[in-house]
Automatic annotation (TrEMBL):
Keyword Hydrolase on entry: yes
Catalytic residue positions: H22 (proton acceptor)
Chief localisation class: cytoplasm
Role summary: Hydrolyzes ribosome-free peptidyl-tRNAs (with 1 or more amino acids incorporated), which drop off the ribosome during protein synthesis, or as a result of ribosome stalling. Catalyzes the release of premature peptidyl moieties from peptidyl-tRNA molecules trapped in stalled 50S ribosomal subunits, and thus maintains levels of free tRNAs and 50S ribosomes.
Binding site for tRNA: Y17, Y70, N72, N118
EC code(s) of this entry: 3.1.1.29
Protein encoded by which gene: pth
Subunit structure: Monomer.
Family named by the database record: Belongs to the PTH family.
Alphabetized GO MF terms: peptidyl-tRNA hydrolase activity; tRNA binding
Name recorded for this polypeptide: Peptidyl-tRNA hydrolase
Enzyme class: hydrolase
Reactions catalysed, as given in the entry: an N-acyl-L-alpha-aminoacyl-tRNA + H2O = an N-acyl-L-amino acid + a tRNA + H(+)
Keyword Lipid metabolism listed: no
Length: 193
């Protein structure tokens, strides 16, 4: 059977959010689309931009998605796409920013809590479960007493931007490894890096 994966980059639509920490998922989805030579377009059944393709000739089919509902309501479009493409919860990958990982760390895992991440909370509720794959893009904790909500909606710092392209590239590698070789291989390859 032809296996299809739904890779969801979490973020907020609009130019003003494009370089925010909260948009790490969009950045990774954009890079995976560029690697496989597909372009995003508006989906007819879900409030999302979607790009479809294969990571390699004959490889698994991938549906890349960027919900356009703003982070806190991401679940509706994700569930609509999963239903439209007949993709089970276990074949969904959420790529998201992660406060609980230091900047520069990228980790893969299956299921777990949402850690206060409203995009994940919305996805879990709409999908009716938490057993989807997460590719966690570490952004670290806010400095001093800065509110985490303000921190995630601020742009990466000049220092962070020096490494950002490399880290987005690594996160895209993690996504591709999950799809082609499985979560365990992705964890063994990247979680210790």
């Amino acid at each position: 059977m032809d296996e299809t994966w739904l890779v969801v980059g979490l973020g907020n639509p609009g130019k003003e959010y494009a370089r925010n920490r909260h948009n790490a998922g969009f950045m990774v989805a954009d890079l995976v689309a560029a690697r496989i030579g597909v372009k995003f377009g508006r989906h007819k059944r879900a409030v999302a931009e979607v790009a479809e393709g294969r990571l390699s000739p004959g490889g698994p089919r991938v549906v890349l998605a960027k919900p356009l509902t703003y982070m806190n309501l991401s679940g509706g479009p994700v569930a609509a796409l999963a239903q439209f493409y007949k993709i089970s919860v276990g074949q969904v990958i959420a790529v998201h920013d992660e406060l609980d990982l230091g900047y520069g760390q990228v980790r893969a895992k299956i299921g777990g809590g949402e850690g206060g991440h409203n995009g994940l909370r919305s996805m879990s509720k709409s999908l009716g479960g938490k057993d989807y794959v997460r590719v966690r893009f570490g952004i670290g904790r806010p400095p001093g007493r800065q509110d985490p909500a303000d921190f995630v909606l601020s742009d990466f710092s000049a220092t962070e931007r020096k490494e950002l392209e490399f880290l987005v590239d690594r996160a895209a590698d993690v996504v591709e490894t999950v799809v082609t070789r499985g979560v365990e291989v992705a964890q063994n390859t990247y979680n210790g890096v």
